[in-house]
Amino acid sequence: MSTTTLFDSHYESRKRDLLQQTVERLRPEYSTEEVEALRIDRVNPAILSQRSGRGFVNRDILETVLGNLLECVAPGSHNALNQREQTEDFTSAIGEVADQIYAMVAQSFLAVGIGQDLEDRALAAAYAILWDLPELKRRSWWNRFASMKDPAVWDAYLLAACGIQDSALRELDFAIHIDAAIASRDTAAYREFLRQFHGDSVFDYQMQLVMSTYPGWRVLFYHDVAHALTRSDDGDAGPTGFRRQPVPLLPRAISELGGRYYQADIHPETRIGDATFLDHPHRGLTTGQTGIIGSGCHLLPCTLGGLSRRLHQRHPVIGDCVFIGTDADLFGPVRIGDHSIIGPSVEIYGLVETGPYCRVNASVVIGTVKTDSMRPGRIILGEGVVVGDGTIIENRLETDLTIPDRADIPARSLVVNDGCGQPKYVH
């Protein structure tokens, strides 16, 4: 390809067929209202082609492209352009975004000295992102819906509009309907619940409030884009027919922008399910490279960090529908079972596993202690275990310490391994 521009005649000729296939796939996914709301900010191709620094794409351009991708999954959520600045139609909008992603990816490969098959590599990555837009759009929608778990979506305006008094609000058990909708991936029951107020106008207002003002779903979308750029496949994820390969530099640059905007440091290789609510992420939320977070989770500012510098599973694995409270710290290959609750200021580290439906209350410490000569056994909490506030559970022995199903550990207990794998309460 040309060394002076990324958009030579060869690129333009290949783009036409790829863009046509992509638009045919995407157009049915957008309503007429969404197409009308779509605002894509143009970037001059000459500027896109310019190499900055050691060849990596300009950070200002990256912010623009991420904003345009946000528009693609939630039209009208990010850009507000003058009529003369917006793209002419849906095809030109997707084509503009394709050019921008292509340029970013190409610059990323050039920055690490890879010029061979550059056009093929960049086209494969760019059109794989666009090919994935229906799934990214669906995930973004459910992440916004999950944010409605926040009672603050019933703000002063909505309460006044619905005529709801404070006493009635305390009896309004809306969260159970949100959880049920996420479990079934069907909002019909929640919409029916809202009909006692003003029908779907409540639902529409809450979704607009989340889209306009809540940062968590945007953080997760940035992560989805970064994560997609770390993937590889055999060419079945897009129309290019080329094998998609992990892109250098760019995924980390996207995650760093997410951290700069929202103080949520999410490694691009972390796997995260959909319908997840990041609550107040601007207070600080960290995940690592090998971390896994399931679907339907509710995370307040917390740290899901590593304890090892070895290349293995060194970050926590969080199941589905897990709640993690403020200032909780989970370090190492901790595994949290589905539907569990981890309270505020909890510290869990090392070889710790919980079954489903566990409840670990505030200021609990659970961990395994490794010495120079001995690797400790695991701490295993069975299904439905409740750990009282201020409790310490510690395993310094090689045998696993198992807390039986549905055990209820009193507050401020000290629990150790009795040498046979059973809990011993130390007073």
Account of the protein in words:
With 427 residues, this protein is α/β, with parallel strands linked by helices. It has 3 domains: 9-134, no CATH class; 151-213; 288-426, 3 Solenoid (UDP N-Acetylglucosamine Acyltransferase, domain 1), CATH 2.160.10. 38% of the residues lie in helices and 15% in strands. Strands 1-4-7-10-13-16-19-22-23 form a 9-stranded mixed sheet. The chain has a 7-stranded parallel sheet with strand order 3-6-9-12-15-18-21. Strand 22 and strand 23 form a beta hairpin. Helix 1 runs parallel beside helix 6, helix 4 (59-73) runs antiparallel to helix 5 (90-111) and helix 7 (133-146) packs antiparallel against helix 13 (216-228). The protein is globular, with a radius of gyration of 24 Å. The termini are far apart. The mean pLDDT is 91.
> Helix segment count?
14
Helix/sheet category: alpha/beta
Number of E-state strands: 23
* CATH top-level class of the largest domain: Mainly Beta
Q: Please identify the oligomeric state.
A: single chain
Percent range of helical residues: 25-40%
Strand order of the largest sheet: 1-4-7-10-13-16-19-22-23
Distance between the termini: 74 Å
Topology summary:
Elements: H1 9-26, H2 32-37, H3 45-48, H4 59-73, H5 90-111, H6 118-131, H7 133-146, H8 156-162, H9 166-170, H10 175-184, H11 188-194, H12 200-213, H13 216-228, H14 250-262, E1 264-266, E2 271-272, E3 277-278, E4 285-287, E5 292-293, E6 298-299, E7 302-305, E8 317-318, E9 323-324, E10 328-331, E11 335-336, E12 341-342, E13 347-349, E14 352-354, E15 359-360, E16 365-368, E17 379-381, E18 386-387, E19 392-395, E20 401-403, E21 408-409, E22 414-417, E23 423-426
Parallel strand pairs: 1-4, 2-5, 3-6, 4-7, 5-8, 6-9, 7-10, 8-11, 9-12, 10-13, 12-15, 13-16, 14-17, 15-18, 16-19, 17-20, 18-21, 19-22
Antiparallel strand pairs: 22-23
Helix pairs in contact: 1-5, 1-6, 4-5, 5-6, 7-13, 10-11, 13-14
